[in-house]
Each structure stands twice: as C-alpha cells, then as structure tokens.
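We modelled the chain as a single entity of 259 amino acids. Its sequence is:
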Amino acid sequence: MTSHSHTAAHTTAAPHRTSEAAPHVRPETTMPQADHDMTSDSAARTSVLVVDDDSWTTRAVAAALDAAGSFHVLDPVHSGEEAIAAFDAERPDLVLMDVNMPPGMSGVDATAAIMDLDPEARVVLLTTVSPGPGIARGLEAGALAVINKTAGERELVSIVRAASAGESPELLRGLAEDIVISGDPLPDAPDSAPQLTAREMELLTLLCQGHSYEEIAADQSVAMSTMKSHARNLRLKLGARNLAQLVVRALQFKFFSPE
C-alpha cells in the first residue's frame, strides 16, 4: 500500500472491549489507592472515541490503539447521533469519525455538531479503501485530517498520536490528492480569492505537500517561530480554520494542484 501520513488502519478485528477493565477487588483498606491509580492511568493516556457504523472496524481500530498502550479507547459508537452524545458526555482528546454512516446522520454533520460543542475539538475522518465523497465537506466542517482504513497498525497509531497533539503539516501529506480522487464537490469558496505574494504561494505549496514545519523553516531560511507565524497569517488570509482547511482553500482557489 502506498503510505500517506493521513491514512488509517484496517486491522484484524479484536473482541469487543469496554473502555475500562473491571478492577480486581482488593481489601477495603486498599481500594481508595487502587481507584486513584486507575484514574491517574486513564488521565495520563490520550482518550479516543471511535465512530463507525461497522462494528468490526471499531473493534479493529480499538484493538490497535489499545495495543499501543498510550491510548484510553472509549466505548465505540456507531452513528452520528451517538457520536455527538458520546463526545458531549466524555469530551475525548480525539474523535475518529467515519464519513458515511447511512441511514442516519453522516460523519460530516456529526463533525460540524461536535465543533459547535467545542471549537477546539480534534476530529479525524475515517475513509474507505478509495477516498469517497464527504472528505472535503468533513474538512470544511473542522476535521484535522483524513485516515484511510487500509493502513497498518503502526501508521494508525502514529497518525492518531500526531493528531491528538494538534494539527501538523505532516498530516496533510497526500490529502489534496485524496480530495481530488474522491470526486467530492468542493464546498463553496469565499466570494473572492485573496492576492498572495510569491513567498506566500511557496509556503502554501509546501504546506499542501505535507512538509514539516522544520523542513519549511529550513527551506525558507527563517526561524521556526517566524515560519509558524507566516503559516498562521496565511490561514487567516484564506479564511481557513486549520491546516486541513488550508488545503481545501488552496484547491478551491486553484492555488495548488496535486501532481
């Protein structure tokens, strides 16, 4: 499989699990310490909510993340409506959201609703073997990245770990290509395209190609803080909420075209 940093895992399904294993009952005098240890352990791990209408997919993804040891996987849900309720109740660090879950609410609409609940929420879209409709609209709704269900476990863990830490240019690698391949109509762009300088166009191209902040700073011979400030200003200029939306804007305004 061609590896893109925004892809996700298709793994062997594991038995259904709950978000916390039942604690071994200890004598009365030691229970408070046991509860404290369990709470501390859960708090130290990244909490992840997996949303997919296919129970085999949710089990496989949960098993892969569980095996990594650094994630606290919440009980999976299987519809957009359930995703909103679970997010509101649990406030996970990251949501892995299937794009299409017929016949109910889509992952796109669920993502938009979650972003309304918490504008700082981190959502990553789960897609099928071939990128399908909904990717561009899901990114427009506020998702940080796209993960394909066919990648290996190591790649899944790597991308979930990166996305849970916040947006990163590396998560954009191959994203523009997948949007084009999906055939998903781009959301309506803002009324007019802003005028970009040659330096801004260069930065936009490097970001859309998925180069890291370190690589871009070195390429442009600027300090990391300066480069990040330029990237932030570029997002504001293009009306992009995050780096993933910057890719959508670049395609909408025809500032970037994947080779």
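As a brief sanity check on the tokenised model: The first strand starts at residue 46 and ends at 51. The radius of gyration is 19 Å.
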